[in-house]
């Protein structure tokens, strides 16, 4: 089967020769510009850590609903802890997605100026390792994401370190999403309705079942089927906005399985890489041309996130 997205090897950028690094930058830049998605191998995220967090997530979601609801934090817009089934919807849809999730966010040292901005992560008494495993995975994703953004900033002619200060202690989120078995004909919802991500880039570690699809330039839905030890990366709206639509935040969705597989749940673990809230998302001057005039007003990352959380029903 032909791949829907290109595949790149991150080790060629991290530890390759000068020629390998530049080839990687070109491949990644082309993929983000033309498709908005890429598969990445040799990303440095330990397989055992992914497997341990998967197993802990399965145990958490298997808990009774009334126990899980203890970990739903009022007023947090789902940014920490549990969000129950049917709360979130795509911005253009009023029908809730068929999913529940648990989120782990940034942690900073005591006395750090951002301490007040980042609430503590939620600890689960019944699954004591869950938050710790999640945060170890969070840091591993941050490391891989930082390397990908170095390559993108080289591609954009900004030098290698453009994003470094903007993502250090950024407002990123690790989300463990559980799509329960489908027990009756869905009203109209699919597991996750078509949407674009809010953040700079998303790093997705292989889901336990298929269903992820992207909408290509020909307006066709293409199934994304990651291979063993491959993570899927996509451009988010913040990076599209920063680059004045040069890099593409591609519409994607998670479709329901064939009826004979309705009894199978699905678990997936995306990492939404966000910058610090005061990052200026004004379009880069180098991305504004006669052929591509300015598309967006200036806004900060924090203001933009706030706007989008309201649109998807997580923030009132």
Short account of what is shown:
InterPro entries: DIOX_N (IPR026992), IPNS-like_FE2OG_OXY (IPR044861), IPNS-like_sf (IPR027443), Iron_ascorbate_oxido_reductase (IPR050231), Oxoglu/Fe-dep_dioxygenase_dom (IPR005123). With 316 residues, the chain is an alpha+beta fold.
Report on this structure.
The longest helix has 26 residues, at 130-155. The protein is built from 8 helices and 12 strands. It has helices at residues 11-14, 18-34, 47-61, 65-68, 130-155, 164-167, 237-242, 301-311, and strands at 7-9, 37-41, 81-83, 100-105, 173-179, 192-195, 201-205, 212-215, 221-223, 231-235, 252-254, 266-273. The chain starts with 6 loop residues before the first strand and ends in a 5-residue tail after the last helix. Helix 2 crosses helix 5 (130-155) and helix 3 (47-61) packs across helix 5 (130-155). It has 316 residues and is an alpha+beta fold. It has a single domain (7-311), classed as B-lactam Antibiotic, Isopenicillin N Synthase, Chain (Jelly Rolls), CATH 2.60.120.330. Keywords: Ethylene biosynthesis, Iron, Metal-binding, Oxidoreductase. Pathway: Alkene biosynthesis; ethylene biosynthesis via 2-oxoglutarate.
């Amino acid at each position: 089967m032909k791949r829907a997205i290109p595949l790149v090897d991150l080790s060629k950028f991290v530890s390759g020769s000068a020629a390998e690094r530049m080839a990687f930058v070109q491949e990644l830049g082309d993929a983000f510009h033309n498709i908005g998605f890429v598969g990445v191998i040799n990303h440095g995220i330990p397989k055992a850590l992914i497997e341990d967090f998967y197993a802990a997530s399965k145990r958490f979601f298997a808990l009774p609903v009334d126990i899980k609801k203890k970990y739903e934090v009022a007023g947090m817009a789902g940014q920490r802890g549990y969000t129950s089934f049917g709360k979130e919807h795509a911005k253009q849809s009023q029908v809730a997605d068929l999913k529940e999730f648990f989120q782990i966010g940034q942690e900073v040292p005591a006395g750090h100026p951002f301490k007040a901005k980042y609430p503590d992560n939620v600890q689960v008494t019944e699954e004591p390792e869950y938050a710790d495993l999640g945060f170890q995975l969070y840091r591993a994703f941050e490391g891989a994401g930082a390397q990908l953004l170095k390559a993108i900033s080289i591609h954009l002619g900004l030098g290698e370190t453009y994003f470094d200060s903007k993502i250090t202690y950024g407002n990123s989120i690790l989300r463990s999403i559980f799509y329960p078995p489908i027990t009756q004909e869905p009203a109209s919802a699919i597991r996750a309705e078509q949407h674009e991500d809010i953040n700079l880039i998303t790093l997705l570690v292989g889901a336990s079942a298929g269903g992820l699809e992207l909408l290509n330039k020909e307006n066709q839905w293409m199934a994304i089927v990651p291979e063993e030890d491959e993570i899927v990366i996509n451009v988010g709206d913040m990076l599209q906005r920063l680059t004045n639509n040069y890099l593409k935040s591609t519409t994607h969705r998670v479709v329901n399985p064939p009826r004979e597989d309705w009894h199978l749940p699905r678990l997936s673990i995306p990492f939404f890489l966000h910058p610090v809230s005061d990052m200026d998302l004004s379009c880069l001057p180098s991305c504004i041309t006669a052929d591509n005039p300015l598309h967006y007003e200036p806004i900060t990352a924090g203001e933009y996130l706030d706007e989008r959380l309201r649109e998807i029903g997580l923030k009132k």
